[in-house]
Amino acid sequence: MATLGPSLVNNTTDGFTRQKALSTTLQARIWWYKSRFNTDIDRPAYEAFSASHPSSSPDAAVLGKLEEIQQRMGGGASASTSGQSQNQNIPAWQLNAPKVDLSKKADDAGSHTNTGDGAPYPENFQALIEAVTLGKPIPGIKEIPDTVVRPPGVTPFGKMRAPRKPWEKDAPSESTAQPSVFGDVVDKEFPPLSDEHQSGGPAQ
């Protein structure tokens, strides 16, 4: 139905195409009238009435209005026909794509000014790239040593006893002094640290 208007106007000399378009239009009108007013239309009787009363048919008025609109648009029908023949092999998404210059000029490579097209680079961007490439310290980044300073008195096992389970409330008191479930698998003390680690310096 989207091409119904151009088909009626551009193919006025093609009797078969014009008759097919008019038949499709009539079928659409009958369907719409039935869905809107719940009334069936006898198509042969309507066609016979339209043939005997051509002035009551809206087709002539529709064709005249379409021709008038296309003339106001400056011959859009002929221009669109030639354009369609040239672009028939081009995908629709490519025809609808914005027509902008996607090439980048060489003299724009060094400029990072904000033109509104995208986020600008920070002023120290080049310095950051150089620092990362050469392994230099980056300003504003805190160096964290790869060791953790261990506070004195910290052991793998805490000094507090685990609370008894509800079913252990009536158990004898000596049952709470049981050995650890880990046995001798886990060290009870952390291994000693070297002087460099204790001072918090980075490990070599």
UniProtKB/TrEMBL annotation:
Region ranges (Disordered): 103-122, 147-204
Xref: InterPro entries: KPWE_PEX14_dom (IPR040554)
One Pfam family recorded for the sequence: KPWE_dom
Domain Peroxisomal membrane protein PEX14-like KPWE, residue spans: 120-169
Basic and acidic residues composition bias: residue spans: 185-198
Top-level taxon in the UniProt lineage: Eukaryota
Protein's UniProt name: Peroxisomal membrane protein PEX14-like KPWE domain-containing protein
Organism annotation: Staphylotrichum longicolle
